[in-house]
Specification:
The chain is about 75% helix and about 0% strand. The chain has about 450 residues and is an all-alpha fold.
């Protein structure tokens, strides 16, 4: 018997249960964003190599999410349509989160067990593989998760649902980023990097499990869809045939995420090398590295604190942004949010005062709250029932694709802009914010030309 199209309205409690999985997912992303730079640089990664390792995110996002999204549309199991992907991705991510910071230990253990001497950069290679696995598994969970919104939430509550996701992203990121600085401040205890990754793996697995076991899915799939093979080109054509506005939303996302990833990828390195003045440590002796250990830890804690502030603002205004978008429209709220983030980026490019940078990260959090919610709400107005997973997967291409630009061209620009300092060389990491500001401004201009579709 076919399930009725009517969807019951979500209560606040049900929205919180729905969003808890994304709360856990953010622990994985925050460890990836904040700590992958220090981990890989310590193993010998230059700025350019660090950027290439970061390509894991966009490539897995562009390949994994469209395929997994389409597969989840057609999945019919006793566990539901989306839940196998949500839970499987979370559990595999937890294993990768444990292995990544222990790359050197694991490669040494394998080397001893097999009586093989690995090359000097074997640990870096293993860490890069773990980052690729981590990103792939997070994408396996993330695409079907976004597809749950039009799957189980009434159309008139899509903006609120995405705002709850934004709230979970903000709160999860605050907790994930803030634990180590808080322990250092309150108890003078420096939480080891491997322990922070293990914390993230546990949070991801538990949070996603809660969502999977508390949210009931619609398991009905139209009969004519069951045996239909995934045709990417056809799905892409269907995607852009939804409405002329979809193309504008995609270009808006493209430039938004160039700007956003300039921050997410490079902010910790910006803190370490530009604000705290630590020279590049990718090609120096262990003695020189050890002499900068305390400064690097302080810089990393500052970066974590800034990300906690950034995401605290996202958490605080996530629901208000959803309410404002219902009252004034998604477009107006999103344009103003992007412009606030543009101004903050310019400030970080021009000034390196610690207190000012923390304040500018708070301002950036306004744009981040909107980016995490409103583009998806704008797109979901045009999704046809039964195609939610494939549409969200294709839409992710315009999130993941821009990251290639940041990982390659922006990393290359930074790598070319070196200067001599006491103790070696350094790089102009602040240039990333000039590029990011220009792209966010362009995204705001495109967003202003999108027509809002009102859902009655």
């Amino acid at each position: 018997m076919e399930e009725e199209n009517f969807l019951k309205k979500f209560t606040a409690g049900k929205f919180l249960s729905f969003a808890l999985g994304f709360f856990g997912l953010q622990f994985a992303w925050q460890m990836r964003i904040i700590l992958s730079g220090p981990v890989t640089e310590d193993l010998g990664a230059s700025p350019m190599l660090f950027g290439l390792i970061w390509l894991a995110g966009p490539f897995t996002g562009m390949v994994v999410q469209p395929i997994v999204g389409a597969l989840s549309d057609k999945t019919s199991s006793i566990f539901g349509r989306r839940r196998p992907y949500l839970l499987g991705g979370a559990l595999l991510s937890a294993l990768a989160l444990w292995a990544l910071p222990n790359s050197e230990y694991i490669t040494n253990l394998i080397s001893s067990a097999l009586h093989i001497k690995f090359p000097e950069l074997a640990a870096l290679g293993f860490a890069a593989i773990m980052i690729w696995i981590l990103d792939a598994c997070v994408n396996i969970a993330q695409g079907p998760y976004r597809a749950l919104v039009p799957d189980v939430v009434p159309p008139e509550q899509h903006s609120i649902a995405n705002s709850y996701i934004s709230l979970a992203i903000g709160l999860g990121s605050v907790v994930a980023a803030g634990v180590a600085p808080f322990l250092k401040w309150a108890f003078n205890y420096q939480m080891p990097i491997p322990a922070q990754f293990i914390m993230a793996g546990i949070a991801f697995a538990l949070g996603m499990s809660w969502t999977c076991f508390t949210i009931k899915e619609r398991r009905y799939i139209p009969k004519d869809k069951k045996n239909e093979k995934f045709d990417f080109i056809k799905s892409l054509k269907d995607f852009f045939a939804l409405s002329p506005e979809v193309g504008k939303i995609c270009w808006m996302q493209f430039f938004t995420w160039i700007g956003t990833m300039c921050l997410l990828i490079n902010f910790t390195q910006y803190c370490v090398h530009t604000i705290y003045g630590v020279p590049d440590l990718s090609d120096v002796s262990e003695i020189v590295k050890a002499s900068y250990d305390n400064i690097v830890l302080n810089a990393t804690n500052f970066s974590s604190s800034c990300f906690a502030i950034f995401n605290l603002v996202c958490f605080a205004i996530a629901i208000p942004i959803g309410v404002l978008s219902v009252k004034y429209g998604n477009k107006k709220v999103h344009v103003l949010s992007l412009l606030s983030m543009t101004a903050a980026f310019l400030g970080m490019a021009l000034f390196t005062n610690i207190k000012l940078v923390a304040l500018l990260m708070a301002v950036s959090g306004i744009g981040w709250a909107s980016i995490c919610a409103l583009p998806f709400a704008m797109l979901s107005q045009y999704i046809k029932p039964g195609t939610e997973g494939s549409v969200m997967g294709i839409f992710n291409i315009f999130i993941a694709g821009p990251q290639v630009f940041v990982c390659t061209l922006v990393s290359w620009i930074i790598n070319k802009c070196s200067f001599n300092v006491i103790g070696g060389v350094n790089y102009h990491w602040e240039y990333t914010f000039f590029i990011g500001a220009a792209c966010l401004l362009l995204a705001a201009i495109i967003a202003s030309r999108v027509k809002d579709k009102t859902v009655e």
